[in-house]
Specification:
- It is a single chain.
- With about 350 residues, this protein is of the alpha/beta class.
- It has three domains: about 5-90, Winged helix-like DNA-binding domain superfamily/Winged helix DNA-binding domain (Arc Repressor Mutant, subunit A); about 90-135, no CATH class; about 140-360, Rossmann fold, CATH 3.40.50.
- About 50% of the residues lie in helices and about 15% in strands.
- The chain contains 16 helices and nine strands.
- The strands form two sheets. The chain has a seven-stranded mixed β-sheet, with helices on both faces. A two-stranded antiparallel ribbon has the order 1-2.
- Helix 1 crosses helix 5 (about 80-110), helix 5 packs antiparallel against helix 7 (about 130-140) and helix 8 (about 145-155) crosses helix 9.
- About 35% of the residues are buried.
- Mean pLDDT is about 90; it is low at about 225-230.
- The structure holds S-adenosylmethionine.
- S-adenosylmethionine binds near residues 189, 194 and 254.
Amino acid sequence: MDAGMLALLGKTTALMEHLGFLWVVQTGMELNLWAELERDGSIDDLMALHPGWDKILLDHWLEQAYCQDLLIKNNGYFRVTKLGKAINKYRNSGLEALYKELVSHWGIEFAELPQLITNQKEKLAFGSDMEEELISKASLASEPFVWPFLRSKCQREKWQKVLDLGCGEGLYLNKLACEFPLLHGVGLEMNPVVASRAQERAKETGGRIHILCEDILSLRNLHDRKQQENELLADAERLLDESGTFDLCLLNNSIYYFTPEQRIQLLESIKGLLTPGGQVGILTAVRKGEPIRVFRTHVPQNLMSFFLACHQGFQGLPTEQEILTLLQQTGYTDVNISVMPLGTSHYFFAKCSHECSEMSR
Ligand SMILES: C[S@@+](CC[C@H](N)C(=O)[O-])C[C@H]1O[C@@H](n2cnc3c(N)ncnc32)[C@H](O)[C@@H]1O
């Protein structure tokens, strides 16, 4: 057989295996099968629990989960493997949202690529399920890498006032406040449904974290706004109004929402909110022009960039160099780049020097 054909068939088989994994994991989460199979169960036990289900399809699901090393099988009884158990354990840490996003959006939207590339179709718009739930929740999947890094950095730098722009579920502000009793924070999140979940979560911090449902680009307007509707808002907006207040401003997985021009404007506005020597932290997956061939760690990031770019208002992920140039161009110094484990994201930290925060006032 022609070597090209053989390689192609190999890739296609691997693709089907990966798709099988995706569909079986997502269906198991949606139907709560990973929890139900934490103890031994046969197909008849499952059918007795769910008499309305299709037995042939359930049989195929069990078989596929077994082939994918997610279930072990013994005398007609199934039980989760360590991998299957992990799905249930970590489903609320971003995994469920990520898998749902892949199943319900990526495949369907990439199917429009020929029309999108040839401009026969307008760029896509994210649906409300994506904006109100899946995007912000899927972002939590990087927490096991990001949080230990952020925590030890906060310990060293002794940040006490933190601004989180595009805070999503507000996870990092909350974790910082729980870990460091003197820390206060403000989060800005423009989606009202996401912001209200973050506000709910922030209650755990006894009033040290405030979430505002605001567009980041209105940062300057927030400075000018005089009318406050309730005490919580008043507190948070007072913090924002006090120029030079924050030791740290986070832009975690939100920089790619902005055009290159808006990023410059944003980084300039942030300088006015930071204390002299205050820092900006930009967490983002980056697009690589030349994926590293040996480990191919950039295939998912570049695919995410491709997916984002199919949507209105997005140009894909930035490159490492673009973020570096942005920080230098807007006068930040001491730029430090840390690559998160598995190469999933880069964390860029940079300082707003005394002169640069003075100049922006
Ligand atoms: C990918 S999520 C990241 C959430 C969180 N920072 C994290 O890392 O887990 C990006 C969030 O930024 C919010 N966002 C995007 N553009 C925004 C803007 N202009 N103003 C406020 N929030 C924005 C989105 O609604 C979304 O919840």
